[in-house]
Write a structure and sequence with these properties.
Length: about 250
């Protein structure tokens, strides 16, 4: 943590009566793995989230770039609201999924590109991911290919992520997801607290800071958040402490 970001303070304890908690998944609740399907889910994570949600009057939501079905699998035991695919789909919020034209063709093109270049293709329910972690020298090629896809499939946008380039439906983002959630009970009127680790989380961290709450940046890197935790293990400790204190 050598960068002078001004976001070095650990977050304060959660206030069960006042806070709404929004949590990213990968790199926030669980450690990033070499492959997206190789993450290790801590035992009881889903149940812990359920208990915390109960303490917060239901004002806890997962906000992730992952597909909703994956989140539901990984967080079995948590039945609360979830926003997946960067905001394009959700559970328990009465929102219709954003499903642009050409999804199947886009996914086929992505899969072919990965097969040709030895990259890992991550299928997602409303887009996909091109992972160059195993071949970082192909970052530029991958980013160019993704940009080309958005001209062929104008309903989709490029989303840069950690060692990956994603295509997701246009017009969605995590800060827009928070804006949407803030108008839905029981989130309405509560102080927004958002925790996330990636560039995709920065708009949401900034949104929480700008709306009377605060952001918690997980890991290194410049951020709009006023607080920081080193790694998912520290996030889980912070959440566990909230369960005892609330
Ligand atoms: Mg993340």
């Amino acid at each position: 943590m050598s960068e002078p970001t001004g976001a070095e303070d650990a977050p304060p304890a959660l206030n069960a009566a006042q806070d709404a908690l929004f949590l990213d998944f990968d790199g926030c609740l669980v450690e990033i793995a070499p492959r997206p399907d190789a993450i290790i889910i801590p035992k009881e994570l889903g149940k812990t989230l359920t208990r915390l949600s109960e303490r917060l009057g239901g004002a806890l939501a997962i906000v992730s770039g992952r597909s909703l079905p994956e989140l539901e699998t990984y967080l079995a035991g948590f039945d609360g609201p979830m926003v997946g695919s960067h905001g394009a789909e959700s559970r328990g919020l009465g929102q219709e999924a954003v499903r642009p034209e050409g999804l199947a063709d886009l996914q086929q093109a992505m899969e072919d590109f990965c097969a040709e270049n030895g990259l890992l293709y991550e299928p997602k329910s409303l887009g996909g991911g091109l992972h160059y972690r195993a071949k970082p020298e192909l970052q530029l090629l991958t980013e160019r290919f993704a940009a080309e896809l958005t001209t062929r499939f104008p309903g989709f946008e490029v989303q840069l992520a950690k060692m990956a380039v994603e295509l997701r439906p246009g017009g969605v983002s995590k800060d827009r997801a928070l804006e949407m959630l803030s108008h839905i009970a029981p989130f309405t009127g509560r102080r927004p607290v958002y925790a996330g680790d990636d560039v995709t989380d920065e708009p949401a961290l900034a949104w929480a800071e700008a709306h009377g709450g605060f952001g918690v940046k997980v890991g290194d890197g410049a951020t709009a958040a006023s607080h920081r935790l080193a790694a998912p293990a520290q996030v889980r400790t912070w959440l566990a402490a909230a369960l005892e204190d609330c």
